[in-house]
Amino acid sequence: MLIAVVGGKLQGVEACYLARKAGWEVVLVDRNPLAPARGLCDTLIVADVLQDRDLGRVLQRADLVLPALEDAAILEALLRRAQKEDLPLAFDPGAYAVSSSKRRSDRLFAELGVSAPQPWPDCRFPLIVKPSEGSGSRGVRIIKNRDELRALFPDLTPPPDLVVQEFLEGPSFSIEVIGRPGAYEAFQVTELFVDSGYDCKRVLSPAELGDERVEEFENLATSIAQAIELTGIMDVEVILHGGKLKVLEIDARLPSQTPTAVFWSTGWNFIEILSDLVLSGAPVRKKAPLRNRAILYEHIHVTPGCLAVAGEHVMAAAGELRLHEDFFGADEALSDYMPGRREWRATLIVTGVDRGEAVARCDQVRATIRRRFNLEGFIDDDPAGPDQPNSK
């Protein structure tokens, strides 16, 4: 099986990692010769999808072509090429168009009666401001009161490229849905933890949500997939606030972070499942888990004298990531670490028979790294809330 992954940043890292776990040959296409995912592929093709006419020969060899980026122009070019050359492209442009815009997805939630954060001005302070397009925490900020909002928007009206809505606090969870209209399967729920900048720094799986809440979340996610007529994969993120699951966002693409956590916890490989759907068109049938483990998936950034647990953005700034087994006691790690390097980053993958053991083992891994590199400083910031200063 040969997969062509287009895009070598964090989504590309996820795709290449899972494809290699499936035993597939991986060709990575990226215009950056130093893309983080280049250490996880068999072949790197340095090319610009928008300009390289010879790229078609590479893509036509692939059994599956997977976009792993959010560049609209490149996605459109890939879609045109796939339609013209009959490429097996794992991409649903209609579903992606809805999920890639927070304004469009928020309108969808309102039409479906899905519980979600209330938009300004129909809500109270504090508020959260975020870009309508794209994912992640870039451009996100918290507004505590009307004076802060007026300083940002003098007429109290945000521009159309920004979304302003009520800020909610509570534990966050994610779930993936794979399928096509009329036949969807929801997979394992993961719990998300963010840093002080609201960027995901840690994933714990399985989540402690309770069977009834899990079933509610599964039904919610599949109903959204049906509404956007998804053919492919989508993840849904919610927050448990005031005793209700409220949808924060959806992404109709291969996400980063959570698929690897689900793979280690259950054995379900979303790349394999997605491939079966795209190539055969057959309904997805969720098989019994191959294993039942707890996993803690966490990003760390080592600098002289300090180890910081940080959001996924630190990995985007890494150099070439390579897979390391038994990494200072972690089951595996994706890292740009090299002996003698004073600054490096790693995504730690640590398992246990239950969440308590996984957390304890990860604590030990961090302690081992700190001793090994004489790192007295340690940072693991959480959001302190809109009315409190950060206390860590």
Lay out the secondary structure.
Elements (H helix, E strand, L loop, with lengths): L1 E5 L3 H12 L3 E6 L12 E4 L8 H7 L2 E4 L4 H14 L7 H7 L2 H11 L14 E5 L9 E3 L2 H7 L9 E5 L5 E9 L2 E4 L3 E5 L5 E6 L5 H17 L4 E10 L2 E8 L6 H9 L3 H11 L13 E10 L2 E4 L3 H4 L5 E6 L2 E6 L8 E9 L2 H19 L3 E3 L13
Parallel strand pairs: 1-2, 1-4, 2-3, 15-19
Antiparallel strand pairs: 5-6, 5-7, 8-9, 8-10, 8-12, 10-11, 11-14, 12-13, 14-15, 14-18, 16-17, 17-18
Terminal-residue CA separation: 48 Å
User: How much strand content do the residues show?
Assistant: 25-35%
Largest beta-sheet characterization: 12 strands, mixed
CATH architecture of the largest domain: 2-Layer Sandwich
Please provide the count of β strands: 19
Average pLDDT across residues? 93
Structural class: alpha+beta
Determine the fraction of residues in helical runs and give it as a percent range.
25-40%
Q: How many helical elements?
A: 11
Query: How many domains would you count in the coordinates?
Result: 4
**Helix and strand run:** EHEEHEHHHEEHEEEEEHEEHHEEHEEEHE
What is the CATH homology-level superfamily of the largest domain? Answer: ATP-grasp fold, B domain
Radius of gyration, Cα only, in angstroms?
A: 21 Å
